[in-house]
Amino acid sequence: MFNIIIYIIAGLGAGIGTGLAGLSAAAVISPMLIIFCGFNPYEAVCISLASDVLASAISAYTYGKNKNLDIKNGIVMLISVLILTVIGSYIASKVPSSTMGSFSVYATLFIGIKFMVKPVMTTKEVQANKSTKAKFVQSILCGIIIGFICGFIGAGGGMMMLLILTSVLGYELKTAVGTSVFIMAFTALTGAVSHIYIGGMPDLFTLFVCVAATLAGAQFTAIFANKAEPKRLNLVTGAVLTVLAAGMLIMKFFQ
């Protein structure tokens, strides 16, 4: 019963982060399964990635239905992210291991505080006024940066996407999250399939509970996010990310 409660809490937390800010489920589910339930790290990551697929997909659908998704430039960025993730992973395997495993936690905390202190109030017109060529080039460059960070450090992709889409490409918050979860659905699917192929099928009951809880949390918060006013959305997103980051820091302390 204790484990089931952990699965549900982990899934809901991951889903809320995904639906609101495009946060990777691996940032929440993996440490909780490892610390509280004694899961093997590889299996925990596999379950996290699998939970991410449907949660990100349903979130992307909800954002797209509300016209808060840039599919064209999202696909360009997705290709760059996937290619550079592989390159980054290869380079990481050739250098000494470092203490960069906490990157995603501190990135989540930083971005959460940023949204509360300095909300993203950009409008869609800013991105619409850019030329097609400029958006294409920027999408490739940002995809390269995000992909390399994901591959080299192994975490932080969702947070880096949100930060770069809002701060560098000038997306307003809803479109940034919608585009981010669109990309994350494909990257999570790729990661989940490769993990299952290499390490085998994870515990199916745990997988089912985590997927269902993550999906429920993502759907609820995605609907809320698309209806909320920008200022309120920034505040809520910032608060949720800050709380999640604080929780992850506490878990790392116990670990």
Outline the structure in words.
With 255 residues, the protein is mainly alpha-helical. The protein is 81% helix and 0% strand. It is built from 11 helices and no strands. Helix 1 runs antiparallel to helix 2 (29-37). The protein is globular, with a radius of gyration of 17 Å. Residues 97-101 have low confidence and may be disordered.
List the helices and strands and how they pair.
Layout: H1 2-21, H2 29-37, H3 41-65, H4 71-94, H5 103-117, H6 124-128, H7 132-153, H8 157-167, H9 173-199, H10 204-227, H11 230-254
Helix pairs in contact: 1-2, 1-3, 1-10, 1-11, 2-3, 3-9, 3-10, 4-7, 4-9, 5-8, 5-11, 7-8, 8-9
Straight-line N-to-C gap:
22 Å
Helical residues, percent = over 70%
- Tally of DSSP helical segments: 11
Q: How many strands?
A: 0
Largest sheet: none
Based on CA atoms alone, the radius of gyration comes out at 17 Å
What is the averaged pLDDT score? 83
Order of helices and strands: HHHHHHHHHHH
Which consecutive residue ranges, at least 5 long each, have pLDDT under 50?
97-101
Q: Please tell me what the overall shape is.
A: globular
As a percent range, the share of strand residues is under 5%
Going by helix content, strand content and strand pairing, the class is mainly alpha
TL;DR?
The protein is mostly helical and 255 residues long. Helices cover 81% and strands 0% of the residues.
